[in-house]
Write a structure and sequence with these properties.
Elements lengths: L8 H9 L9 E10 L5 E10 L4 E6 L9 H16 L2 E6 H5 L3 H20 L2
Helix pairs in contact: 1-4
Amino acid sequence: MGFYTKTEIPIREELLKLGLDEEESFHHQHRIFGYYGCRGQSVYYWMDIFIPALLLDIEADGEIWHTFFDMKERDRRRDSILHRRYGIKVIRLNSYHIRKKRLGGILHRAIEARRRQIRSSRFS
């Protein structure tokens, strides 16, 4: 389990309040294969907080890092690869979401929506 960043800590706390167990229900800094690079090297992605049972990746996007250069496009490409390759849904929470008192509600709605999605896809 590594150290949580300032933007990840409130997400972790809310997930615990929602009854999820760390290391059982969700994992911090979970590594997953992304693609093979131009020289054949394996490229991996790190998911901030991953809920395996829901195939849900919760990304805590810091204000500064995700405004640099082409980060938004790189994030879109990464999210698309995770979705196509593994069926992983990525939700991105920025500092605004995390500072607001509505974080618990945002996470609760995202988790419940994903549960419904997975249940309906099993019966399709």
